[in-house]
Design brief:
Layout: H1 2-15, H2 24-50, H3 54-71, H4 79-103, H5 105-122, H6 134-160, H7 165-187, E1 192-194, E2 201-203
Helix pairs in contact: 1-2, 2-3, 2-4, 3-6, 3-7, 4-5, 5-6, 5-7, 6-7
């Protein structure tokens, strides 16, 4: 569905002279990603309003998104899988894990600091869908580590300043989820590794090699 909508919009833009023929594929991809993200955010925000945790969810998405764009990690093979997985994780957290962590804050904070340490150690996973260059990968690892240090400092400071537990829990879950997906990407070998000698990119999951770059 999202691919069809993106295709229709791209064709309209081309017909109206807004884009060149050679740019159609790029715009098609960008529009499709935008539509898919909009649907995902809309669904999560809808649930958050229903359950009275809208502002908490905003903080969660901010913390998660700021890290996720640099760390990479596990990705579903299809948008449907990604949508169901993301929404499912959010529902499980709000309805099951959040009430538990609210009672046992020390467990949450332990998981939070372990997640931060994991991201600091790994940095980033170069997923095949991203296929960063060696320089891009190194930059993302550095930025991921900076981002996680900033978030660790901010959330810890908010905790000691007496911020409500609800917000602390949702913000820390953003980092915990990001670390989980990062580790899962490593475990499932969804990773591109660059050969230092010839510059070829080798997929850890035995998917073969990509072209030099």
């Amino acid at each position: 569905m999202t691919e069809h909508i993106a295709n229709v919009l791209t064709e309209h833009m081309f017909a109206d002279g807004l884009i060149e023929c050679g740019d159609k594929e790029i715009y098609h991809y960008a529009i499709q990603v935008l539509i898919e993200k909009t649907i995902g955010f809309f669904t999560i925000f809808l649930f958050s309003i229903m359950w009275g945790v809208f502002l908490e969810t905003v903080f969660f998405l901010l913390c998660f998104s700021c890290l996720r764009k640099y760390t990479g990690g596990f990705h579903s093979e299809s948008y449907a899988g990604c949508f169901v997985g993301t929404t499912g994780i959010y529902i499980i957290y709000v309805k099951l894990l959040y009430p538990i962590f609210l009672k046992y804050m020390n467990i949450n904070m332990t998981a939070f600091y372990i997640a931060g340490l994991l991201i600091l150690l790994i940095g980033a996973v170069n997923h095949p869908n991203m296929e960063w260059s060696k320089k891009e990968y190194e930059n993302c690892k550095a930025l991921a580590r900076i981002a996680v240090i900033v978030e660790l400092f901010i959330i810890t400071s908010f905790l000691y300043l007496g911020m409500e537990k609800d917000y602390i829990l949702f913000m820390s879950f953003g980092m915990i989820l990001c670390a989980f997906l990062l580790a899962l990407g490593k475990i499932t070998k969804q990773e591109v590794k660059t050969n230092e000698k010839d510059g070829t990119k080798e997929f850890a999951g035995n998917l073969g090699k990509s072209s030099k770059g």
